[in-house]
Design goal:
- The complex is a heterodimer.
- Chain A has 2 domains: 3-215, Rossmann fold; 224-324, Magnesium chelatase subunit I, C-Terminal domain (Helicase, Ruva Protein, domain 3, Orthogonal Bundle), CATH 1.10.8.
- In chain A, strand 6 and strand 7 form a beta hairpin.
- Helices cover 48% and strands 17% of the residues of chain A.
- By secondary structure, chain A is an alpha/beta fold.
- Chain B is mainly alpha-helical.
- Chain B folds into 3 domains: 3-158, no CATH class; 167-363, no CATH class; 384-468, no CATH class.
- Helices cover 64% and strands 2% of the residues of chain B.
- A two-stranded antiparallel ribbon of chain B has the order 1-2.
- In chain B, helix 1 runs antiparallel to helix 2 (58-79) and helix 15 (430-447) runs antiparallel to helix 16 (452-468).
- The longest helix of chain B has 42 residues, at 9-50.
- The chains are: A alpha/beta, B mainly alpha.
Chain lengths: 328, 469
């Protein structure tokens, strides 16, 4: 056994805890959001954060960049934002040899990209993100450029103000590993936030690891073994969201229009691996799958008209589906 | 895959051993619960069957299935082999979070992370308190067992005629067994006094009797067998006595024996013949004639034990039989051995002994199918009257008519024969009682469930008598 791998896997939980603790210095409350965000980042996925304005979504992403010591860029999505504005474009540059086109990298060329209020941009601009999110590459004028690794897009959207927005298409939603709901802080958390804001010289989050270490953590997580029963449970969970599946629970057949894609199964297992290591285990447990399932599946299912007319909530339905799938 | 081949696998499999032991213990309990349920169900089924047919040993059949099934289930379930996977899953269910199952699946892997995982799983297994491995819930099985058990106990304690029947059968079987042994012992005693020929006959008789008694299903079978044996024994006795008399006669005619032997005295030792065989037979007969054979006494005792009413009847008949014997002795001078040994069949001559058989009637009465002593309890007794007209009817003919005091329409009627009313008070002219009888019978015919034709027949009968008068 190589010492490097061993220490990588064994040190995972410790590093994870240090990152979390460092983020907590600047992020009051929102423990679950932070955890989900960290897991997704280590697993190498993109995250869609949904919450009302002012909950610290942008701040969280900024702190994460700081702790991980990764280049960070922010794009404020607006209806007039064009694809070239985010991917970059060829610009005419006057040099000593004469005029020439040079590629001016857009804000996508960064390790952490914050796509703020992503649903305000037009579908055309949103679609420009697809390649970057999935392939970690950008193609401009027929030329494909690799994006830096590690790379991930953290998008936010406001669930309240739907006027003048363009809901993300299913294909794009499927590219997000997680959809994390950012809840309103509790009274204590709110009090702490207020206190932190008015105090001078509050503690600032410091860098914990770098890009190399993050990639090592990702590699360690990918090697975590999964028992066949656990993997089967994850797959059955995904299949349970498909109304056309004969074994799907009644709630699925009644209220869902379509279910999660195979990417959901991949996402479930990869995030579960990270969670297992973060909890100090070297194997995936059923509880890891259950913990990751809501964030993995909630943006990958679509309710039908009956669910809407019956006032059914996607979260509630998802919980019913998860509880209806047995471990064995 | 063999555990020895696995890297670090030995430790893992060693760690699973306590888990397997615990699983076996749990299986023992589960099996016992299943067995209890099955046993209680079986006991209930036996009790339900016992409602329709006699089942001997009701408590045994209540306890045996429960205990047997419980033991069988417990041991059988415990001895089932425990798979490694099952043990691993059981360990994981105690909070090991799929560590053991994963380690088992990755037992052959050489990857570093798998080795780490295996170590982690082994550590967790060492720290595992196997008492946390709980058996599957057996609530349903126990409830089933309780329900069936309660029903079975209820059926056990409520009175069941079939149980009494079974107990009676069992008691009869026991009585027959003991009686058979007693007869065998008595026969052994008798054999010493008999000639080899008679000895083998007696032995055959007792063997057959034993077989018949053990095969008999009820009292009737047993009594029939006993009666048959008794008759055969009696015949044997009579033959022996006849032979002895013949021998004695022969000896007397040859002048080798005393004269007094012919006048009702026993033949034993009264004369010494030159012929040894005759002397032996004389000795046999003297032993037999001196009284009943022990075998016969044992037979009588067994009959009394099998049917106590028979014993009562027998004792009454014996008393009257003794009186008859006295007359018989006086008349034919045969002595007690010949007349006293007679059964009910012979008693038709008025010298019957108490031990009537099924076909015979006690007290020298004519056989009418059932005697009082051995009568089947399903027959009920009715009152009878006999019209007896010494002037009209010949003395040897008796008409038997039933009185209207019948106990049930579907019951069989017992016709008890014997001297009629007319004979009790001597001769009563029939024309003195004719009207009274006509009135009674006409009333009776109207009340009885008779056809018009039958009523007419009764009326015509009396009309005819009136005309003759």
């Amino acid at each position: 056994m190589s010492e490097q791998t061993k220490s990588g896997a064994e040190r995972f939980a410790e590093q994870y805890e240090r990152i979390r603790a460092e983020i907590a210095k600047e992020m009051i409350g929102q423990q679950e959001v932070v955890e989900h965000l960290l897991m997704a980042v280590i697993a190498g996925g993109n995250v869609l954060l949904e919450g009302v304005p002012g909950l610290g979504k942008t701040h969280l992403v900024r702190v994460l960049g700081k702790v991980l010591n990764l280049p960070f860029s922010r794009i404020q999505f607006t209806p007039d934002l064009m694809p070239a504005d985010i991917t970059g474009t060829n610009i005419l540059v006057r040099t000593e040899e004469g005029n020439t086109f040079r590629f001016q990298e857009g804000p996508l060329f960064s390790s952490i990209v914050l796509a703020d209020e992503i649903n305000r941009a037009t579908p055309k601009t949103q679609a420009a993100l697809l390649e970057a999110m999935q392939e970690h590459a950008v193609t401009v004028a027929g030329e494909t450029r690799k994006l830096p690794e590690p790379y991930f897009v953290l998008a936010t959207q406001n669930p309240v103000e739907q006027e003048g927005t363009y809901p993300l298409p299913e294909a794009q939603l499927d590219r997000f590993l997680f959809k994390v709901l950012v809840p309103f802080p509790t009274l204590e958390e709110l009090s702490a936030i207020v206190d932190l804001t008015v105090k001078d010289g509050g503690t600032e989050a410091q860098q914990v690891i770098g890009a190399e270490e993050l990639l090592a953590m990702r590699a360690a997580a990918r090697s975590v073994p999964v028992a066949s029963g656990v993997q089967e449970y994850a797959l059955r969970l995904v299949l349970a969201t498909h109304p056309e599946n004969a074994d799907a629970p009644e709630v699925t057949k009644k209220y869902l229009r379509f279910g999660a894609s195979p990417r959901a199964a991949q996402a479930l297992l990869s995030v579960s691996r990270v969670r297992a290591l973060a909890k100090g285990r070297f194997n995936v447990a059923f509880e890891d799958i259950r913990a990751a399932a809501p964030a993995c599946l909630r943006h990958r299912i679509a309710l039908n008209f009956e669910a809407i007319s019956d006032g059914k909530d996607g979260e509630m339905l998802l919980q019913e589906i998860i509880s209806s799938v047995s471990e064995k | 895959m063999e555990s020895g081949e696995l890297r670090g696998g030995n430790e893992l499999f060693a760690g699973l051993r306590p888990v397997k032991r615990r699983i076996r213990r749990n299986r023992f309990l589960q099996g016992a619960a299943w067995g209890l349920a099955a046993g209680a169900g079986a006991a209930l089924i036996v009790r339900i069957i016992a409602l329709f047919t006699p089942v001997a040993g009701k408590w045994l059949w209540a306890v045996l299935p429960v205990a047997g099934f419980a033991l069988l289930g417990a041991v059988g379930n415990m001895l089932r082999p425990v798979k490694d996977r099952t043990a691993a899953e059981a360990a994981d269910s105690c909070g090991l979070k799929e560590r053991t199952v994963t380690a088992l699946e990755q037992a052959g892997s050489e990857a570093e992370i798998c080795a780490l995982q295996r170590e982690d799983a082994c550590r967790a297994l060492r720290e595992l308190d196997t008492r946390r491995i709980r058996p599957e819930s057996v609530k349903k099985q126990l409830l089933t067992a309780l329900g069936c058990g309660l029903l079975a106990v209820t059926l056990l304690v409520i009175p069941n005629p079939r149980d009494r029947e079974a107990e009676a059968r069992q008691a009869l079987r026991k009585t027959l067994k003991e009686g058979t042994e007693e007869i065998a012992r008595a026969a052994q005693e008798d054999e010493e006094r008999l000639s080899p020929e008679k000895r083998s006959e007696l032995r055959r008789l007792t063997e057959e009797l034993k077989r018949e008694l053990l095969d008999s299903r009820d009292e009737t079978d047993a009594l029939v067998a006993l009666d048959r044996a008794e008759q055969r024994l009696e015949q044997m006795q009579n033959r022996t006595a006849g032979d002895a008399e013949a021998a004695a006669d022969a000896a007397g005619s040859e002048g080798t024996a005393g004269e007094g032997a012919r006048d009702g005295e026993t033949a034993d030792g009264t004369g010494t013949t030159a012929d040894g065989k005759t002397a032996q037979e004389s000795a046999d007969s003297s032993g037999i004639k001196a009284g009943k054979l022990s075998t016969q006494k044992a037979l009588t005792a067994l009959k009394s034990a099998v049917n106590p009413s028979e014993a009562r009847k027998g004792s009454q008949a014996t008393a009257s039989g003794a009186r008859g014997d006295g007359q018989g002795e006086g008349q034919n001078g045969q002595g007690t051995a010949a007349a006293g040994g007679g059964s009910g069949n012979k008693a038709a001559n008025g010298a019957g002994e108490g031990s009537t058989n099924l076909e015979g009637t006690a007290g020298g009465e004519k056989d009418s199918g059932h005697t009082k002593g051995s009568r089947d309890p399903k027959y009920k007794e009715a009152e009878y009257e006999t019209i007896y007209d010494p002037e009209r009817v010949e003395a040897s003919v008796r008409d038997e008519m039933t009185n209207q005091n019948r106990l049930g329409n579907e019951e069989s009627l017992q016709v008890e024969t014997g001297p009629g009313k007319g004979s009790l008070g001597g001769s009563v002219p029939w024309n003195e009682v004719f009207r009274e009888y006509e009135e009674t019978e006409t009333r009776s015919a109207e009340r009885e469930n008779l056809t018009t034709k039958e009523r007419q027949w009764v009326n015509d009968y009396y009309s005819l008598l009136t005309e003759q008068q």
